[in-house]
Design goal:
single chain; 3 domains; elongated; Serine Threonine Protein Phosphatase 5, Tetratricopeptide repeat; mainly alpha; 21 helices
Length: about 375
């Protein structure tokens, strides 16, 4: 689900520079082709305008906007740099460069550009909103909240402002404040899928599983292709022992996105505790192909193999888990159990002692009873 932002660049402007007629003609043709959504054609016209007049700030500005649309963010930034050099009093140069930098994931620099734009256009609340978004993505949560507060003062009917302030409050661990903002978002826009998802996700964390399921069902109604809604709803269903419903949601998530690691891991975990060890192993196999660095995946797959009496396979997985996380007491305990079941008592006792040293009480008891 894409965040609903107002990252809308300034409209293409016809600037009043004293230019040669030919360069201005190409500039005007670029505007016409932009309006017709012929972006490559517009790019060509702005190139021609700049070739004839390298000081045409408007052509750099608008060529930057075209490049941003075409996802050439570095090219757009370069053009906005030149536009700002030629006309440093034009707020749109800094605002549009901020948009390009945001799209290029340069959130700190984007926020700095929005601040420069505000110095030139202090009453433009859209700049404040976009700076809030940039600060949110840069994990400057309190600063983001401050910007959204200012924006909401003059734009209280903008649902996205409440939604994004709610996101910032969530990251600040202000759960009640976040839910209040999501509530306001949905009051203003009852079809805001993002607000239903994030409120449902938060309710899952707060163990309000029924409320979570209700919200995520609404999120799916408005955005049926968003995999995270199905995965989170599955977790809430599992928490109220609706195992079939949880499996169905994870199946749907994987139908939409077959390689989704989160859905695979969640379904493997659910199969493990049903228990359906063969199905769990099959999903852990797929998950580990995607993420070979998750120690817990090897631990659970190893335990599934242990329960199926595949002790060599279990030992291999527990060993990999220990390699990734040498302080995992459960992995030593599980490998010790598998080794003892394989009549490798000496090695098994070594593992039990290590697990006991790491605080596993059951391992300590086994060591005392069988390994002395």
């Amino acid at each position: 689900m894409k965040k609903q932002l107002l990252l809308t660049a300034y409209c293409l402007l016809h600037t009043a520079y004293c230019l040669s007629q030919t360069a201005e003609d190409y500039f005007k043709k670029g505007i016409e082709k932009y309006n017709a959504k012929d972006y490559q054609g517009a790019l060509s016209e702005f190139n021609k305008s700049i070739n004839l007049n390298s000081k045409h700030a408007g052509s750099y500005l608008n060529r930057g906007l075209i490049k941003n649309i075409l996802k050439d963010y570095l090219g757009a930034i370069t053009d906005y740099n030149q536009a700002a050099f030629l006309d440093n009093s034009n707020a749109s140069c800094y605002f549009n460069r901020g948009i390009a930098r945001f799209n290029n994931k340069q959130y700190y620099l984007a926020a700095a550009d929005f601040t420069e734009a505000l110095k030139l256009d202090p009453n433009n609340t859209e700049i404040i909103f976009n700076r809030g978004i940039a600060k949110l993505e840069n994990m400057e949560y309190q600063a983001a909240i401050n910007d959204f507060n200012k924006y909401i003062e003059t734009n209280p009917a903008n649902a996205d402002a409440w939604y994004n302030r709610g996101r910032a409050k969530y990251f600040m661990k202000d759960n009640n404040g976040a839910i209040a903002d999501y509530n306001k978002t949905l009051e203003l826009n009852p079809k805001h899928a993002g607000a239903y998802f994030t409120r449902g996700y938060l309710k899952n964390i707060l163990q309000d599983y029924k409320g979570s399921i209700d919200d995520l069902t609404r999120a799916i109604e408005f955005d049926p292709k968003y995999v995270k809604s199905y995965v989170t709803r599955a977790r809430s269903k599992y928490s109220i022992r609706d195992d079939k419903g949880a499996i169905a949601d994870l199946n749907k998530a994987l139908e939409i996105e077959p390689g989704n690691a989160d859905a695979l891991y969640s379904r493997a975990y659910l199969y493990f505790f049903l228990p359906d060890f063969n199905a769990a192993i099959a999903d852990y196999n797929k998950y580990i192909e995607i993420d070979k660095g998750n120690a817990e995946a090897y631990l659970f797959r190893g335990q599934a193999k242990y329960n199926l009496q595949d002790y060599p396979g279990a030992i291999t997985d527990f060993t990999k888990c220990i390699e990734l996380n040498p302080q995992n007491a459960e992995a030593y305990f599980s490998r010790g159990s598998a080794r003892m079941a394989s009549e490798q008592t000496t090695y098994g006792c070594d593992d039990m002692r290590k697990a006991g040293e790491l605080g596993n009480k059951e391992a300590q008891d086994i060591t005392e009873k069988y390994c002395n």
